[in-house]
Amino acid sequence: MGSFSIWHWLIVLLIVVMVFGTKKLKNMGSDLGGAVKGFKDGMKDGSADPASPAVPPSSAHVAHTPAAADKAPIDVETKTRS
Question: Which residues cross the membrane (predicted)?
Fold first, then answer.
């Protein structure tokens, strides 16, 4: 078994184009390109300096401090008798 010649690849390409059509192949190519670009961007973001925070401090989530009424003890027996 030898390697495939250029004629073998042209026949395979012709069959693929006949089965899927040029429009579907174009859409698949653009989807694949978008996926590769997204992967590269993700790898670039992942290799950032680990000491720097991922979220800027201005948009960081602020913890809610409960009010004084939330800290009062709850009498469970009173609530269940009502």
Answer: 6-22
pTM of the predicted model as reported, rounded to 2 decimal places: 0.39
- Is residue 33 within 8 Å of residue 25, measured between CB atoms? no
How far is it, in rounded angstroms, from Cα 68 to Cα 40?
50
Question: Angle 22-46/6-20 helices, nearest 10 degrees?
Answer: 100
Look up tokens 């997204």; give the residue: 38
Half-sphere exposure (Cβ direction) of 37: Cα atoms closer than 13 Å: 6
CA atoms within 13 A on the CB side of 47: 6
